[in-house]
Design a protein that fits this description.
- With about 100 residues, the protein is mainly α.
- Helices cover about 75% and strands about 0% of the residues.
- It has helices at about 10-25, 25-35, 45-65, 65-90.
- The protein is elongated and about 55 Å long.
- InterPro entries: PQ-loop_rpt, SemiSWEET.
- Keywords: Membrane, Transmembrane, Transmembrane helix.
- It is a multi-pass membrane protein.
Length: about 100
């Protein structure tokens, strides 16, 4: 797979941009949570379900050998799991 945007079919370019945006969308939340240690606005059930879902998407991508799916979900899993971990770690401490 070439990373030259002019060599990509439109559907692959759309998928690449979508994967990049959805993956990077977790970075600000992870950085904010790490900086403030405020996890009061984070839903434990939502992040638990989401992290499990992303993990399953990663497994799905691995079974297909679909590198864009694998890379996007591996990065998203790392970010979502870090937010979930901070929710569990910082949420058990008194404010």
């Amino acid at each position: 797979m070439s990373l030259d945007p002019t060599a990509l079919p439109l559907n692959e370019l759309i998928g690449l941009v979508a994967a990049l945006l959805t993956t990077l969308s977790f970075l600000p939340q992870a950085l904010l949570t790490l900086r403030t240690r405020d996890v009061s606005g984070i839903s434990l059930s939502m992040y638990s379900a989401f992290t499990l879902g992303v993990g399953l998407w990663l497994v799905y991508g691995l079974t297909l050998g679909a590198w864009p799916v694998i890379i996007a979900n591996a990065l998203t899993l790392a970010l979502a799991a870090s937010i979930l971990g901070m929710k569990l770690w910082f949420g058990r401490r008194p404010a």
